[in-house]
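Chains adopt folds. We examine one example:
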Amino acid sequence: MSAYWFLALIPFLGGLAVTGHQARTAITEHLLRRMARRVDGIVTGHIASREGTYAALHPVVRWTDEDGGEYERAVPDAVGAHALPEGSRVHLLCTPGAPDTVALDSPERYRTAVFGVWLGVLLWAGALTAVLIRIATLLPPRYRY
């Protein structure tokens, strides 16, 4: 085998990295959904933040928790300002005692993470299968099946 087969490490290691990162995101989302309280909030405005090379608008949401405390935070999420106009009602997930962990109650992040896990598995399993098939074809005839 030539040194070019080391190029198969790129999709293999990339697939492992994608699988690990997306699995962590899926587990975090699952735990957030199990442990967090669901509260209703109102979008009071939008705040711009720099993400990469472009400015993104994040909704600023006001809500009241179970203890009667009123909070207002910017909620970083993939939802743009056009989807949540000012004054609209939203459902939030908030961990009790930690108002900074507020997130929009949408299954989008979990679905995306599960899709990423399967994509990563497909990458590393495909690279591993290709290498194993290539090794099997290089075996001497007496060791083949």
